[in-house]
Amino acid sequence: MDKFFIRGGNRLVGTIRVSGAKNSALPCMAAAILTEDEVTLENIPQVWDIATERRLLTSMGAEVELGHGSADHRTAISCRSLSDPVAKYEIVKTMRASSLVLGPLLARAGMARVAMPGGCAIGGRPIDLHIKGLEKMGATILQEHGYLEARAEKLRGAHLVFDKITVTGTEDLLMAAVLAEGETVMENCAREPEVTDLAALLCAMGARIEGAGSAVIKVHGVASLHGAHYRINPDRIEAGTFLIAGAITAGDLVVADCNPEHLAAVITVLQNAGALIDIIAPDAVRVRASGQLTAGDISTEEYPGFPTDMQAQYMALATQAEGVSLIKENIFENRFMHVQELVRMGANIKVDGRTAAVRGPSKLSAAAVMCSDLRASASLVLAALVADGESILDRVYHMDRGYERFEEKLQGVGAQIQRMGNVFASNEVEGTAG
Q1: Is the bond preceding 361 in cis, omega lying within 30 degrees of 0?
Q2: Whole-model pTM?
Q3: 258 is catalytic
Q4: 120, 189, 258, 371: which one is catalytic?
């Protein structure tokens, strides 16, 4: 398995560019199922979850054409034929977004057989909200042999109220609703930029959607959708990770090709910690250190609150801040697995239920540590960038699920980080959420 070797102590200086959002690209690729025409997506990140989605669509009969050279972030998807509307376990076991094809398959083909998402290392992602909504729209769904068997002669519009906010549930039912008969009203919807990205693509394909990005979404079903050409939003979690990298290393870093509006919660937290943040262009943010970082409390929330996918990275920053930072994780029940690895590097962290108390600043020292999930891996990289000596990070295939050329981007701004081993050799190892 690949490992990262990281020698700490370098300030990150220069410009680092953000890739397309993996968590937008996955549902947008699934949306191609809804039409026989070709859907072309730009700014697709080259990460393993995207490669898995391509395999999944191809296995169901889609034609997936990859760009080359200057167009290597473009993907053209044609679902003229859905010869096998099955999301096979052997493909989707390495990706938690398998449920995103359930709604579009039902809407387009009237049937779907989708492997149940397994439990994630950071906590379960129950699919009951997807099932409840699709059943209200007229689907019959059975669970057997680890698969969901769903059928619907024709989905009908319905009034759906989510018991709790769910990003994938909102996306899945939104895709089902665009081809359903009549009007669908969805309440307590996720407001994440990834949802609005998907809705924008669907509208470009001919869907009639109102309210995406708010708690209430209205969908007027249409008879069919057509192809579209669409550019995926930049990855706000990758951008936030790099902003913290600049702050924790006392660097001077420009994070380019991002959307500052999507980073408001992260920017506020960094400013409260003492970092200097300047929005220097509509798509670029500069982060600089202004002296000793100061502790601050955070609580993860649904968008526009502080994202759960940035909690681990902030914890690494908190180890270098003066005082005690209280970090409360409200989204996933088991998202503190990076704590023990940070403690091995010298961090002072105490966990009580869903709250971690981080006392800093701590002088971190290099260690051999284990990556447990996508965002935990990022936090260990950040800690290693300021640790004394050379750290070895094992199981970095988790990083490859959601960060494109992560070590190369960091090398370009002064980090001493090297990958050793067979690149992407571990794709068949079961992935985790992020």
Answers
A1: yes
A2: 0.93
A3: no
A4: 120
